[in-house]
Amino acid sequence: MATSKGTGFSEYANVGMVDDVQYTYYNSTMKEPVLLTDWMNKIKGREFWEKRTWYILHNEQILKWSLINTVQHFNHTGVHTYQFMGYCELHDNRTRRAHLNHAYDGKDFISFDVETLTWVAAVPQAVFYKHKREADKAKQQIVFDYYRRECYQLLEWYLQYGMETLQRKVRPAVTLIQRKARESAGTDVICHVTGFYPGEVEVNWIRDGEALLEEGVWSGEVLPNEDRTYQLRKILTVSPEDQKKHSYSCQVDHASLDEKMDVKWVPEAALNMGFVAGGVLAALGLIIAVIIGALIWKKRASGARSPDYTPAQTKEQSDASSNSSNSTNDDRCDSIAEKLMTQTE
């Protein structure tokens, strides 16, 4: 990207990426570009790096020139930017694709067709730029050679020496989180998939083990984690009626998996009901036991106390009286406990 002078930002910045891994960086305040990955040092040694540095510095001159010419053509003042993104792709079936696209102030401006070696204006105002670039045959040939041959050669080198980083595979972790839906009486179930690499992943909500759901499903974007892995969320909204009639699972397909991962959603309400019911019964049994114990203690305590003096009894009278009193109190307590148990049931 090239930026107008006087902004406080560097007038030019260049970032090199292989897939999602940044390997070079340069801006106009630096003496030369820097390598950001160790494995790049192994690629063709100094010869390779000198060639790559030449392209980065060459692009600096091209972009600054492009910004100046475009601003003058529009007779613009103030701060403006000129950007380009060029890339080449190698697919598993060995097919290739290359593209170069330019933008002015963040909007598509012009692109380069590698096959026809022509510039294609995205807006009428870019026709002047097309004529300027196509008139410079020497620079035109540099662009053509890079996007037809050298870009692919560099990419193959990157893949060869950076295989450990670029072609690693990390399994995803899947967590289901349940919450009340904000705009309905239903339930939102969040399928949070995280920690996976590479970033390409397919996540779907499945009903009854076979029906792929699209309605009622919100999908987030694949976002980067700090450890160079990725995460993604997909939220399913389930009505109370459907929750009773159907089963749901979150299905994940990723390059690190031998087969699709299927995580079934078990509604939290169903799990909690069992724990609540068991807790209520246990608490009720404890209350009943406490009441019975209190009643027995109270009856026995009241029988042991006497407000008036009575003459001492003989041993035979005392034993008989004690047995009779205990029998009566026990019978009454048993009767009370039985009534309580009957009412509780």
Automatic annotation (TrEMBL):
InterPro entries (alphabetical): Ig-like_dom, Ig-like_dom_sf, Ig-like_fold, Ig/MHC_CS, Ig_C1-set, MHC_class-I_related, MHC_I-like_Ag-recog, MHC_I-like_Ag-recog_sf
Record keywords: Glycoprotein, Immunoglobulin domain, Membrane, Transmembrane, Transmembrane helix
Family affiliation: Belongs to the MHC class I family.
Transmembrane intervals: 273-297
Protein name per its UniProtKB record: Major histocompatibility complex class I-related gene protein-like isoform X1
Region named Disordered: 304-345
Domain of life the protein comes from: Eukaryota
Keyword Transferase: no
Cell membrane is among the record's keywords: no
Biased amino acid composition, Low complexity: 319-328
Sequence ranges assigned to domain Ig-like in this UniProt record: 172-264
